[in-house]
Amino acid sequence: MAGLTLAKGNNLSLTKTSPGLTVATVGLGWDPRTTSGEAFDLDASALLLGADGKVRSSADFIFYNQPATPDESVKHLGDNRTGDGDGDDEQINIDLQKVASDVQRIVIAVSIDKADERRQNFGQVRAAYCRVVDQDGQEIVRFDLSEDAAPETAMVFAEVYRNGAEWKFKAVGQGYITGLAGIAGDFGVQLG
């Protein structure tokens, strides 16, 4: 059964919509448009933010090369290097009961690997989406990105955040022309 579809800027209470939710799987999907033949490699990441809107340390930046937080509350489930096939291309699990109490938001971002070198951007990506499924695989909520993001090489797709005792999902869809470095800089991640 399909979940509720949100428009950009809308949010949904995961706690109220799916009262038994303990592990939220954030699924991300995309398909490259036909291009010059250069491979497209999109990478999902998650940033755990404190009340100041910044990561607490570099351990709060989860991606294919650092696939889990030390407490394993957030786990990247694997890098899909081509975007081929149906269904989610990459997934990030969030164990809502394990997330540290000083984490207020978990930002879900996707960036295009080697975007400048390959002259690629989100205008060349179609059918991009972000969804949350519960531990039984039931889709709770979905956000289909439909805007033309031609100059942008990275994008915050969504965020999962606390609102009092609730966990909520927000459809963000904010692009960055500065790639993953721009997202990392905005949220306080020091890149190597």
TrEMBL record:
CDD domains: TerD_like
Residues annotated as domain TerD: 4-187
Gene3D superfamilies cross-referenced by the UniProt entry: sav2460 like domains
PANTHER family: CAMP-BINDING PROTEIN 1-RELATED, GENERAL STRESS PROTEIN 16U
Family: Belongs to the CAPAB/TerDEXZ family.
Descriptive protein name: Chemical-damaging agent resistance protein C
Organism: Subtercola boreus
Biological classification of the source: Bacteria, Bacillati, Actinomycetota, Actinomycetes, Micrococcales
